[in-house]
From TrEMBL:
PROSITE patterns reported for this sequence: DEGV (PS51482)
Superkingdom: Bacteria
Coiled-coil regions, chain positions: none
rRNA processing found in the keyword field: no
NCBIfam families: DegV
UniProt organism field: Neobacillus kokaensis
Gene that this polypeptide is encoded by: degV_1
Name of this chain's protein: Protein DegV
InterPro entries: DegV, DegV_C, DegV_domain_contain
Keyword annotations: Lipid-binding
Lineage summary: Bacteria, Bacillati, Bacillota, Bacilli, Bacillales
Amino acid sequence: MKTAIVTDSTAYIPKEMLEKWNIHMIPLNVIFGNEVYQEEIDITWNDFYKEVKTRDLPTTSQPPIGQFVELFERLSAEGYDAVISIHLSSGISGTYQGALSAASMVEGIKIFPFDSEISCMVQGFYALEAAERVMRGEEPEGIMVCLEELKKSARAYFMVDDLSHLQRGGRLSGAAAFIGSLLQVKPLLHFENKVIVPFEKIRTRRKALKRMADLLGEDVSGGGEYRAVIIHANREEEAVEWSKELSLLYPNVEFVIGYFGAVIGTHLGEGSMGMGWMKK
């Protein structure tokens, strides 16, 4: 069975990796006034953080269902029998639901939508894992079972400098836990039951980074090989340095550098830092 892998732009998989593993990407949109940009196509993360310094904060939107239908039909015409379509958490976006709806409209190809329940490059890890398995000749049903198994070890924690972006966009659940002390803490957040919720109040940026590193250490101490990503919102140098430190601490972890692109960056704000990981 010839299987295609699809993900959306919020996986933030570098272009060269998309091409290497033949992963198809469907973009979400970031909207400045009347101007609509498809992230990762019309606007890069570097350009986005330049734009937000001089313009009002944008809004974001999921891909239209028709865009999914068009892609799935094209893949069918190219001879694919199946599609594994991997998307950001359904708790913060309707993108997965869009893939699900489109799947019911397309004939002649079997669609397997997958809710990663997370975002950014941890979502990308699912797509890369699926692509590797496709290249080894595995069937889509078996790959879907593997992806569900990987959820047991998938984690993502992130720190924001300012919670107002998340509150404004309605992407933070349980924000009341921080009200009244926002100026005194660097909130550490994570995904729980598909939504973003507060994890801990931490007083400084340095302590927040250390706490994320300690959480990684707790997971990898049980053995096995892991892949991890350091995710930054326009703090690339800091991310690279942190990655070097962590590589020395955790030799059984393969680290890559990722970023919060335009859509996720709209909701987190510049200066945010995060880390995600899963077992290989």
